[in-house]
Amino acid sequence: MDEANHSVVSEFVFLGLSDSWKIHLLLFLFSSVFYVSILMGNLLMVLTVTSDPRLQSPMYFLLANLSIIDLVFCSSTAPKMIYDLFRKHKTISFGGCVAQIFFIHSAGGTEMVLLIAMAFDRYVAICKPLHYLTVMSPQRCILFLVISWIIGIIHSVI
Prior knowledge:
Blueprint (H helix, E strand, L loop, with lengths): L10 E3 L7 H31 L6 H18 L2 H7 L6 E3 H34 L4 H4 L2 H20 L1
Antiparallel strand pairs: 1-2
């Protein structure tokens, strides 16, 4: 009765959607176009907000950080998937899989908390417009950002 399974998983094997070269090419083009579009859109958002002095308000600061989180989120899995479309031996190591899960959960948890902070920002802007600049100070925005990353990482570690 003392027998136990002592096997260790070292890698996961991906079974493809199809063995057809044409479908792999279509998936590669489709995925690559969307991934590059996501990268360009989010980078353009960050560069626009940081370079234009008229966009130096709390709302745009939080929006630029949301774009950065989206860059982390989409870059955690998409490059590996696109790379594996043309490999014969489609595998991911156990550590690589855990790292992807960690980054997805970190970015997802951070994004949820940052969206709550953005909702609070809009609440203050609409309901207390005369107090907006004192309530939503740059220090408070940075505090919201740090708290959202801490909560996202704690969520992922758990």
